[in-house]
Amino acid sequence: MAEAIELTLIHEVVQGRYGAIALNHGSCCGPEEGCGSSSNALVLYGEESIAGLPVDVTGLSLGCGDPVTIASLKPGEHVLDLGSGGGIDCFLAARQVGVEGHVIGVDMTPAMLAQARANIENDGVANIEFRQGQIEALPVADNSVDVVMSNCVINLSPDKPAVFREAFRVLRPGGRLAVSDIVTEGGFSPELRADLSCWAECVTGAIDVDDYMELMRQAGFVEIVVADKRSAAEIVPVQPGMPQLYSARITAVKPFLCPA
Ligand SMILES: C[S@@+](CC[C@H](N)C(=O)[O-])C[C@H]1O[C@@H](n2cnc3c(N)ncnc32)[C@H](O)[C@@H]1O
After folding, report:
1. DSSP assignment letter at 208
2. CATH number belonging to domain 2-253
3. What's this model's pTM, rounded to 2 decimal places?
4. What per-residue confidence (pLDDT) applies to 190?
5. All structural domains of the chain with their residue ranges
6. How far is the CA of 27 from the centre of ligand 1 (A)?
7. Which atom of ligand 1 is the closest one to the Cα of 136?
8. H or E element: which one contains 91?
9. Is 63 a pocket residue for ligand 1 (Cβ < 6 Å)?
């Protein structure tokens, strides 16, 4: 029961923060020109990739990496983005999968979804839809997508085992997971962990990279690879006593043959 209250509370704090960011086009974790600005999109994806995207999409880039590139998308694939925010990764993925493909973004924050849906209308794209929901209980059918991607979101979840179980459930056998996320080397003290405003800034909800990979393994994923891992000191506010924080790109596969 206490755990359920804590899960609800974390969701509320996170939702409050990202609702305000969607309404104000503010910054999520760093200075104004950090994440949450078009310059964040430029740094993460490069000028060529984001060329032609509406400024309302690039201006609400709150990620910590580029999961689309590591997903190696192919035309016709069906893609799901966990915690899609303003939708930048969905828009980039939609270009790569083309009209035969389809992209679903799931986010729990109504103001963020409203902005993302407005972006679809403004951009006139036909192969993206945004659904309201929690990534711990996805509003998506079993075995229905080729790729699950996510950018700087799973660290915010109070129930990471459920997120990986859900990602596994909705992927078709052989489907891929491509994640960019904040991870640590070492853990936070219980005191720092309890700081929910810091949690919502993508800091104290982050877990040790080995534990992260173990949760993926427990959910059934194989071929788990940390594609790269670099210091996150420039994008998240590090305080004394914190473990090393990294922005990592992690890929994995749902095997064709799952244990019964
Ligand atoms: C740091 S932003 C990243 C947004 C987007 N992925 C990007 O790269 O710009 C985190 C997003 O995840 C959403 N989010 C956080 N926790 C969530 C959860 N448990 N279920 C669904 N959405 C969640 C927030 O509403 C917010 O839009």
Report:
1. B
2. 3.40.50.150
3. 0.94
4. 86
5. 2-253
6. 13
7. 19
8. helix 88-97
9. yes
